[in-house]
């Protein structure tokens, strides 16, 4: 049985924030090319990401947020919502696909059609707050997926894991104090977006790491801090905000993770998912801006998910 779904859409490559922007369409191409070069592309079930519905988005974002994004979409050229975050004529569709991918992934995993899924989508989502697009993000994809699991599938406990180099301030904004969700994260601190350390809510299991931290510090965080909280919480599904910009080669941050650390973390989360939630894992791409290290890191993450 093929265990892993690979969900993406060509619309996600049409969103373009300008020629020198690090969150670029080539990120998805690099991942695809690597999977083909490694000969592992044949081991996944492929799905086109659907457009998220307004019903799905409104579980997380107010209608005013959706209207603001839709109105800002240009007919041509690029429009900046803030210095980092810009829209071209294709961004609206791409953002809907990125949020829709996570909902489809949750549906597939909850129906038992596959064990786990990886959403190779952009724009990313974890910096988008309930009513504020920022940090390259327009909708909070992981939050939309989590609320879909709760509202459409009746789950009572959803875990969100975030190992992006940047703190998932948007996801925290969406779920701080919500007992249905446990968020476990590592992030470089102090660093953009300068959040996650000031008296976080009880359901936020945040582990800030100093610049220069690597695999040893990461594994300590996972084993000593995340794992006990996850075992106590007993999630019914594990969602992963899979950012790969904490990689040693990624100059967007100052952490020093390697492929073996991402492989180890994915293996560990798979063991926990097998123990607690029928192996259900949905992983959604967040950061990762150096094409070679991004592609290799996603490659080992997918090898682990698919038992290759």
TrEMBL record:
InterPro entries xrefs: HDACs (IPR000286), His_deacetylse_dom (IPR023801), His_deacetylse_dom_sf (IPR037138), Ureohydrolase_dom_sf (IPR023696)
SUPFAM superfamilies reported for this sequence: Arginase/deacetylase (SSF52768)
Gene3D superfamilies with a match to the protein in the record: Histone deacetylase domain (3.40.800.20)
Domain Histone deacetylase intervals: 21-304
Source species, domain of life: Bacteria
Classification via Pfam families: Hist_deacetyl (PF00850)
Family listed: Belongs to the histone deacetylase family.
Protein name stated in the entry: Histone deacetylase family protein
Classification of source organism: Bacteria, Pseudomonadati, Pseudomonadota, Betaproteobacteria, Rhodocyclales
């Amino acid at each position: 049985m093929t265990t892993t779904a690979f969900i993406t859409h060509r619309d996600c490559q049409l969103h373009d924030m300008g020629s020198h922007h690090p969150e670029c369409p080539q990120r998805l191409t690099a991942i695809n090319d690597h999977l083909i070069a490694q000969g592992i592309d044949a081991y996944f079930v492929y799905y086109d990401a659907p457009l998220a519905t307004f019903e799905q988005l409104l579980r997380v974002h107010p209608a005013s947020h959706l209207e603001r994004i839709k109105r800002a979409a240009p007919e041509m050229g690029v429009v900046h919502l803030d210095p980092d975050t810009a829209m071209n004529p294709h961004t609206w569709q791409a953002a809907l696909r990125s949020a829709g991918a996570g909902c489809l992934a949750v549906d597939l995993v909850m129906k038992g059609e596959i064990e786990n899924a990886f959403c190779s989508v952009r724009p990313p989502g974890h910096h988008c707050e309930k009513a504020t697009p920022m940090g390259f993000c327009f909708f909070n994809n992981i939050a939309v997926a989590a609320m879909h699991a709760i509202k459409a599938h009746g789950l009572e406990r959803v875990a969100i894991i975030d190992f992006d180099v940047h703190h998932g301030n948007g996801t925290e904004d969406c779920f701080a104090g919500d007992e249905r969700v446990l968020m476990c994260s590592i992030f470089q601190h102090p660093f953009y977006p300068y959040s996650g350390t000031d008296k976080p809510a009880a359901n936020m299991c945040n582990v800030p790491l100093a610049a220069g931290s690597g695999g040893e510090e990461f594994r300590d965080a996972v084993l000593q801090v995340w794992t006990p909280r996850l075992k106590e919480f007993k999630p019914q599904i594990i969602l992963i905000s899979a950012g790969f910009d904490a990689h040693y080669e990624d100059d967007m941050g100052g952490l020093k993770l390697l492929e073996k650390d991402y492989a180890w973390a994915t293996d560990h989360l798979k063991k926990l998912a097998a123990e607690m939630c029928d192996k259900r894992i949905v992983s959604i791409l967040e950061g990762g801006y150096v094409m070679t290290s991004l592609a290799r890191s996603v490659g080992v993450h997918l090898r682990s998910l698919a038992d290759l």
